[in-house]
Amino acid sequence: MELRYPGLLLVVGGVVLALLTLLALSAVRRRRPRRAGPADAAVANSGLLTALPEYRRALRHHRVRLLLFSLSAVLLGGGALVGAARPVAVDIERPSTRNRDIVLCLDVSGSMAPYDAELVRTFSRLATQFEGERIGLLIFNSSAVTVFPLTDDYEFIRDELHIALRSLSGDREFEYFFAGTFNGAGTSLIGDGLASCVSAFDRVDTSRARSVVFATDNHVAGEPIMDLEEATEMAVARRVRVYGLNPEEWGQDEQSITMRDLVCSTAGDYYVMSDPAAVDGIVAAVTAQEATTIESAPRRLVGDSPALAIAFAGLGLAGLITAGRRWRP
């Protein structure tokens, strides 16, 4: 425990010491022998009075009360003085964060809405369990839009994922959610979408584990700037793992095989929506990815700690009240 205003103790302590010194000098002067004056009078046979058991008992009680009064006054005054000096509790905290980044990359073409909604619902529940991980959300169709960048503000994340879930579930009140995803020619330009999601990570800080949850039906209609192979090469170069979710795999069709091979080349994995455990499997794979704990700079936390001073002052006040009552005849 420390005091916020320790100088106050020195000042008051000096004043008290000076008063005690004056009282001591005054007592010494009073003890010096002096001549008997006309006001002085001898009391005969006083020894008989002081020898009485009742007198001795009363004197003993008087001394106990006086001692209680003195100690209580010291406790009350000391507690009040320490409280005025503001006792504080000091603690050194070394906060740590988990260095894992996750970007939800959703193809929002019409056929994908139900699958996107399920994925968003799962991550909305998962956000309540994260501690230090950053999450971002990017949607794409013919063009890509960042709904929110990487952040660890989980209350904000839950609010945004709630809006995303309402819009993907067909709520017309939230149709604005798709604004900006139809600014190009074609639909489901998945190469451009994945490249935009890979670019959402920090380019400087490469110590954080990076994952993209990439949900698309893999039905490209149009000419993307980057094809899926080029986008996955970018992901490999930037150490981003891609976890692909394909809701419409028709057997071993060429598009599905290509998508599976490309996302697996990033050290990620490939899932089919017809698998009941697909979404949970993606979540388990992403959260199982190693996330090193980063120790932040130590912080000095200071908070008021008046309990001890209040306890001493309260004890002293109770003693004074008790001693005062006993002083009554």
UniProtKB/TrEMBL annotation:
InterPro entries: VWF_A (IPR002035), vWFA_dom_sf (IPR036465). It comes from the Bacteria. Residues 101-286 form the VWFA domain. The chain crosses the membrane at residues 6-25, 66-85. Keywords: Membrane, Transmembrane, Transmembrane helix. Coiled coil: none annotated. Gene3D superfamilies: von Willebrand factor, type A domain. It holds the Pfam family VWA. This is VWA domain-containing protein. It comes from Intrasporangium calvum.
